[in-house]
Amino acid sequence: MTKLLLSLIVAALACCAACLEEIDALDEAEKASNGDNNCASASPEQVCIENDDLPVWWDYSIDNLFEDLFNCGEIVYHDTPIPVTDKDVEKVYQQFNELRDKYAKEVNLVPIQQPTPDNSFSLMTVPCEIKDAGGGKGKGLFASEMIKKGSLVMSLNAGNVGIFKDGATWRKFVATLPRETACNFIEWCWIQEIIPEEGNEVDVRNGLTIFCAFDESSLMNAADFDWGYGEEANVRCGSSDDNEEGPCRFDYYATRDIEAGEELTVNYDEFEDPDQHQWVLIGL
Fold first, then answer.
1. Rounded CA gap, 159 and 236, in Å?
2. In the predicted model, is pLDDT for residue 84 greater than 90?
3. Rama region for 185: left / alpha / beta (φ>0; ψ in -120 to 50; rest)
4. Do strands 190-194 and 139-143 pair parallel, antiparallel, or not at all (unpaired)?
5. For the residues of 140-201, what is the DSSP string, one character each?
6. In this model, does residue 67 exceed pLDDT 50?
7. What pLDDT digit, counting tens, does each position of 246-276 carry?
8. Helix 179-188 with 86-106: angle, nearest 10 deg
9. Cα distance between residue 8 and residue 116, in whole Å
10. How far apart are CA 175 and CA 179, in angstroms?
11. Mean pLDDT of 167-178
């Protein structure tokens, strides 16, 4: 009886061990099907850490994304200036469309207007075009017609600019873009502390916010002397007059008469912290 009982116990234990192995296998399969274990199917931009489901970029700063993940220097900077062609401009507009669609599907903190034949919903309120800015600056934005001093040139209220309120969401959005689009997106985004306006304290854009316009306004170059371009900005945030007090929020004006064919330029430090510390504050 003792030998028979021992045999039955051994058989039962073996059966239980087999059942547990089968349950573990089923559990792993279920995790994979739910996307919890996605290293095997990750895209090149979503390289997983060994034995960990976190993507390698999960805690990257903006500099890490630009330099380490995408090596954007090879795309954005060139020792010898490369002329901007019509094909280059067409590709930029394609990237705007891709970014707009991705934002509307994945983030959508603010409504994004889809361009139509009758309305492009551009932030630019004056006729302009993307052209070669020369001097190694790459692409730039140029007036197509004469613009009078004091004219509204650009407004962030056009419904074609995405916003992000935390670094993690922005990081994931960037890291899952194609390389060239990601590099341009990083260059086109800016971070700004929006001062609440009386009567509009609940605007989601108030406070520290990352902005990115999905149109040609993103190509407006800096005119700061520190950048070495030797120009005075002809577009100003908040008002058209340096002597006027007022916070920089969403509207940009011509500081003087701008002739057709002139490049539109702005001082970035009017709306963005020059030392870029705000990127750290938002988690990047």
1. 20
2. no
3. alpha
4. unpaired
5. EEEESS-B-TT-EEEETTSS-EEEESSHHHHHHHHHTS-HHHHHHHHHH-EEEEEPPBTTBT
6. yes
7. 678 899 999 999 999 999 999 888 888 878 8
8. 80
9. 76
10. 9
11. 96
Nearest to 194 by CA among 276, 251, 264: 251
Residue 194 tokens read as 């929006």
Residue count (the chain): 284
Contact of 183 with 70, CB cutoff 8 Å: yes
Tokens describing residue 115: 């361009």
pLDDT at 25: 39
Read off the pLDDT of residues 87-123 as tens digits, 9 standing for 90 and up.
999 999 999 999 999 999 999 999 888 877 777 788 9
163 residue type, one letter: I
Strand, helix or coil at 254?
Answer: strand
Count of C-beta atoms within a 10 Å radius of residue 86:
8
The distance from CA 170 to its chain's CA centroid, rounded to whole angstroms, is 6
The pLDDT score that the predictor gives to residue 173 is 97
Query: What is the tens place of the pLDDT at every residue in 6-46?
Result: 454 445 545 444 444 444 433 443 443 333 334 443 444 44
Tokens of residue 160, six digits = 């074609």
Task: Report pLDDT for 230.
Answer: 58
- Please report, as a single letter, which amino acid is at residue 187: E
Q: How far is CA 6 from the centre of its chain?
A: 67
Query: Which pTM does this prediction carry?
Result: 0.78
Which residues sit opposite 222 in a β-bridge? 266
User: Residue 248 has which token pair?
Assistant: 């920089």
- 238 torsion bin: left (phi>0), alpha (psi -120 to 50), beta (else): left
